[in-house]
Amino acid sequence: MNDKEKFATPFARQSLSSIMLALSCVAPVYAGVLDGAFDSATVVPGNTPDSWSVSNKAKLSVDPGGVTRAISVFNEGFVTINNGTTGAINALNSTVDISAASNIFSANSAGITLSSNAFEDSSSVLTVVDSSISGLQSGVFQATGSQLSLTNSSVYGRDNGLSGIGNGGVGVNNRGGLLEAIGSSITGDRNGIAVFADGRSGTGASTADITLNDSDVQGITGTAIVVGRRLASDPLVTANILVSNGSTLSGGNGNLLEVADGNTANVTVDASHLTGNAIIDATSVANLGLQNGSSLTGQLTHMTSLAIDGSSVWNMTDSSTVGALNMNGGEVHFAQGTGYRQLTVDSLSGTGTYFMNVNFPGANGDQLIVNGQAEGNHSLVVKNTGLEPTKGDGDVVVVKTGGGGADFTLRDGVMDYGTFQYELKKQENDWALVQVADGGGGPVITPSTATVLGLFSAAPTVWYGELATLRTRMGELRTGNSGSGGWARAYGNKFDVDQSSGVAYQQNQQGISLGADGQLNTAEGEWLLGVLGGYSKSDLAMSSGSKGRVNSTYVGVYTTWLAPSGYYVDAVVKLNHLDNIADVRMSDGEKSKGDYSNLGLGGSLEVGKHIKLSDEWFVEPYAQLSALAVAGKDFTLDNGMRADGKQADSILGKVGTTVGRNFTFANGSKVQPYVKVAAAHEFSKGNKVTVNDTRFTNDFSGTRGELGAGIAVQVRDNLQFHVDADYSNGEKIDQPWGLSTGVRYTF
User: Residue 71: beta bridge partners?
Assistant: First the structure.
C-alpha cells in the first residue's frame, strides 16, 4: 500500500471512530487552558480527553496514543500532535504540527479551521504529515494568508446538506491561503477544493496559491476545484494552481475545474494526466498550460487562454471554446469517441498539430475555427478511410480563420478518402480538403485502391511465373533422357508492372513444382503424359509502402509429343487456388487489411520444330498460345473500402526460337547450353475492377520482347539437372529476372 492509498479514506483510523464521534459532539468546555509563553502541557495515553485552549505562545503536545477533544489555539500558540487523536482544531495566528498517523475528526464542524481576525490576515500555519483530517462541511477551512502543508496525508469534507460554494462537503475551503500537498489526497462529498475570497470587512481581493505534487483531488458528486464567490458582495479571488508529478483532478459531475462570478484561475499542468472538463463562465478568466509530457482529456468552455508545449496533448471530448490558443509544438486531438467537434478560438499562434476526422458524405467533420487572427505554422492529421464520398459533395473546410499569416499543411502531404487522395488547399482565409490531381488533371488513387488493383491484376503473372519454361521438358527428351520419371523445379521471378497498366507495383515470386510422368513410344513419335502440383508465394510492393501477397496452390496435367521429324507439341492445363492478402499502409501511416480467395484455370499450347544442324548445333522455332481465366470476387478492407473484381482474362501469344548445341562426353554425360529469343503479345484489354463506386480497368495488353538462356546437364542415363534464366521488357510489364532450376529422375 502506497502513502496516498494509506491515507485516502475519510477516517483512516477506523478503530477510533466511535470515540472521536462522541468527543467531537460535545461542545468545547476548556478543561485545559494554556496561556503565555511559559505555559505548556503534554497529553499522554490515559489522560482524560479534555478540550484545550492554547494562547499567547503557550504550547500543547499530544504524544502517541494521546486523545483530546477540540483544541483552540490563538495568538501565536503552538500545538504538536504526534500519533494522537483529537477533535476539531481552530487555529488563529498560530502554528499546528500534526504527524505520525494522527487523526483529526469533527462531527459537527470543520476538521481544522485556520481562522483570522477581522481587518487583518491570519498567519496560521498547519503542517500535516502521514495523518488524516475529517470534518463536516470542510476537512480544512483556511482563511486568507494561512498556510497548509500536507505530506502523505488525507483530508475529507463530509456533506452538511447545505448549498453554496463552501458547503455540501468540501475537502479544503481556501479563501486566499497557501496550500501545498505532496503525495496526499483531498476529497469532498461535493467538491474537492473550493476557492473564494474572504468576505469580511477590511479585506480586498485575495490570492490562493495551490500546489499539488503527486496528489489527488476529488469532488465525489461535484467538481475537483471550484473558484467562485460565496456571496455576491464578496471580493474577487485569483487561484494559482500547479498540478504536477502525476497529480489527478476528478469530479463526479465530470468537471475538474469550474471558475465563476468574475474570478480568475491560472492552472499549470506539469507531468500529469487529467481527465475531465473545465467550465468557465463568461464573466471569469482562466488560463491553462500543459507542459512536460502532460495531457488533458476533456471539454474546455470559455477558457481564456491555453498553451500546450511540444510534449503535451489535449484530447477533446466535445466542442470547446478558447480565447487565445498558443501551440508550442503540442497536439490537439479532436477525434475522441464518436461524432465531430468544433474548436472555436479567438486567436491562434505558435506551431501545433491537430488530429481530425472528416466525413465527405454531407461534407462535414471536425473543424478549427479562428474568429480572429491566426499565426504560425500548423499541421493537420486527418484520419484516412476507405469509405467513399457521396457524389456531388464539395470540398470540406477544416480550418476557418479571420485572417492572419498562419500556414496549415497536412502532416502526411495527402490524405486518403475512399478511392482517391485529397490535399489541403487555402481558399481565401480558410483551408479545405480538395481532391489531388495528377499531371493530366485526373484524380490520384489512394494506397488502398492501388493495393486492391494490384491484387486483382497479379493472377496472370503468378500463373505464368509458375509455368516457368516449357523449354526444360523438351530438353529432357532431346538429350535422350527417355522413360517414365519424376521431377522437381524451384523458381523465382521478379516483375515490374508499369502505371500504364492501371496500377504500378513490383512482384517477387518464389515457388516449387513437383511432377511425375510416363512415356509412351509410338510409330508417330514419343509421348510424355504427366501430372504436376506446386505452391508459389508472390509478394507485391507498392510505391506507397503498401503490400500484397498471393499464395497460390496448383495442380495440373501436361503432355509432350516429339515426332521423328523434329516437330513437337507441348501442352499444359493448370488449376490454381489463390489466397490474396492486402496489407495497406494508408497515407497517414495507419494500416488496413483485407483478404479473399478465388480460382484460376489456364492452359498453354506450344508447337515447334527441332532442326538439327552440323556439329551438334540445333535451332528450334516455336509458337505458343496461353489462356487464363480467373474468377471474379468481391471483398472489403477493414477501413471500409469495397472492392469487386470481375473475371480476369489473359490471352498471350508468343513466337520465338531457341538455338543451342549438344556436347557428349566420353563418360556418356551430355551438356546442352542454349539461348532463346521471343516476342510475346497480350491480347486481353478489359479486366474490370470496381472500387467503391469507381470502375477501373487493368490492361496488360501490348507487346514485349523476351530473352533467355539455360543449360541442361545429363549426368547419368537416369538423372538430369537444368538451370534456366529469363528476361523480358515490354510496354506495361517487365521481367528483370527469372530463374528456375530443376532435377529429373528416370525410373
Answer: 52, 89
- The dihedral through the CA atoms of 65, 68, 71, 76 has a sign that is negative
Please say if the pLDDT value at position 271 is more than 70.
yes
Q: Using an 8 Å Cβ cutoff, are 243 and 267 in contact?
A: yes
Amino acid type, 574: K
pLDDT score recorded for residue 393: 53
From the CA atom positions of the chain, what is the Rg in Å? 42
Q: How far is Cα 399 from Cα 389, in angstroms, rounded to an integer?
A: 19
Residue 466 burial (C-beta neighbours within 10 Å; 0-12, 13-18, 19+) = buried
CA distance 108 to 309: 46
Distance, in Å, from the CA atom of 265 to the CA atom of 77, rounded to the nearest integer, reads 33
DSSP 470: T
Using DSSP, state whether 666 is helix, strand or coil: coil
Buried residues in 284-295 as b, exposed as e (16+ CB within 10 A): bbbbbbbbeebb
Query: 78, 54 in Cβ contact below 8 A?
Result: yes
Render 294-329 in DSSP notation, one character per residue.
-EEES-EESEEEEEEETT-EEE-SS-EEEEEEEEEE
Side-chain half-sphere CA neighbours of 509 within 13 A: 32
10 pLDDT band, cuts 50/70/90, is very low
Backbone conformation region of residue 565, classed left if phi is above 0, alpha if psi is from -120 to 50, else beta:
alpha
Global pTM?
0.81
pLDDT at 127: 98
Bridge partners (DSSP) of residue 347 are 324
Question: How are beta strands 591-609 and 112-115 bridged, if at all?
Answer: unpaired
DSSP per-residue codes, 383-447: PPBSPPPPTT---EEEEEESS-S-EEEETTS-EEETTEEEEEEEETTEEEEEE-B-TTSPBPBPH
N-terminal to C-terminal alpha carbon distance within the chain: 79
**Residue 206: enclosing H or E segment and its boundaries?**
strand 206-213
Q: Assign 695 a pLDDT band (cuts: 50, 70, 90).
A: confident
The mean per-residue pLDDT over the stretch 266-287 comes to 98
